[in-house]
């Protein structure tokens, strides 16, 4: 039996744009039919052509590819030397992203992932100090429910444990605070949102800085009350890399903010 989490609170929908669901208090937006089925096919074939990883029925782990700026883990900034050119079919998505004028900058770092059926990603907060606020995630191939959880004491404690990779072979995962596990001390504010194939998820504000996101590893999901066998899902996570003076964070969630945690550790080191 698939264990399910509650559905999200009801979204706000502008009747003139029925494909856009928003949760304004969380800074969260889900846009369905963001790409066409033809674009979806192009992205899927490009993934397999460029990765040299043909889809294998036996694959159990996520496969990742990176385009645009990579990270320099010695400085926690953008690498000036490691850059993979962004292919045209990905660059073509950029003008369509719902950037907030004067607030968001266009993403320059792209992580493509393939999740074989049943695979997930542990709950985490994408590193605050290294990426611009808005995170964009395009789903294709198949839909999946994404779990959102308001970070509390337990997540803050886990962020202070030594980091581990999220299990993929990718560098962009190393800088993330992985915050999985159950929290019995705090009331849960947790639910899962179905991300349909060809939808774009946008995380800003609280959903970006103060909530974790992740995908449970499961063979089946419950969608609209029905058990559905999970298919292979692809995603492109699009982020902007902070540079120089922009590196850092002044969010309202110091417990799960890598910038604040680093400052705290530096202060302790000086005592
Ligand atoms: O697959 C996704 O939609 C999300 C991936 C993710 O959270 C990440 O790479 O940070
Ligand atoms: Fe993430």
TrEMBL record:
Chain ranges of the Fe2OG dioxygenase domain: 106-242
Entries under InterPro entries matching the protein: AlkB-like, AlkB-like_sf, ALKBH4, Oxoglu/Fe-dep_dioxygenase_dom
GO molecular function: demethylase activity; oxidoreductase activity
Pfam families, per the entry: 2OG-FeII_Oxy_2
Superkingdom of this protein's organism: Eukaryota
GO terms, biological process: demethylation
Name of the featured protein: Fe2OG dioxygenase domain-containing protein
């Amino acid at each position: 039996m698939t264990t399910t989490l509650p559905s999200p609170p009801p979204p706000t929908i502008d009747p003139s744009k029925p494909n856009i669901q928003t949760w304004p208090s969380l800074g969260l937006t889900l846009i369905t039919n963001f790409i066409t089925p033809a674009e979806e096919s192009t992205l899927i074939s490009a993934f397999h052509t460029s990765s040299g990883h043909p889809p294998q029925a036996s694959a159990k782990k996520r496969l990742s590819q990176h385009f645009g700026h990579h990270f320099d883990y010695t400085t926690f900034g953008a690498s000036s030397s490691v850059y993979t050119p962004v292919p045209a079919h990905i660059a073509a998505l950029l003008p369509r992203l719902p950037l907030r004028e004067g607030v968001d900058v266009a993403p320059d770092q792209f992580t493509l992932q393939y999740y074989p059926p049943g695979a997930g990603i542990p709950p985490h907060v994408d590193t605050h100090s290294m990426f611009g606020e808005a995170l964009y995630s395009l789903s294709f191939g198949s839909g999946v429910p994404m779990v959102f959880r308001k970070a509390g004491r337990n997540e803050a404690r886990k962020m202070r444990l030594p980091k581990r990779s999220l299990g993929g072979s990718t560098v962009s995962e190393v800088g993330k605070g992985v915050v999985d596990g159950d929290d019995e001390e705090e009331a849960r504010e947790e639910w899962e949102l179905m991300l349909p194939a060809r939808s774009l998820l946008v995380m800003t504000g609280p959903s970006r800085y103060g909530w974790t996101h992740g995908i449970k590893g499961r063979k089946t999901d419950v969608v609209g009350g029905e058990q559905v066998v999970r298919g292979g899902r692809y995603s492109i996570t699009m982020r902007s890399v902070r540079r120089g003076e922009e590196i850092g964070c002044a969010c309202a969630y110091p417990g799960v903010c890598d910038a604040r945690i680093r400052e705290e550790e530096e202060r302790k080191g000086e005592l």
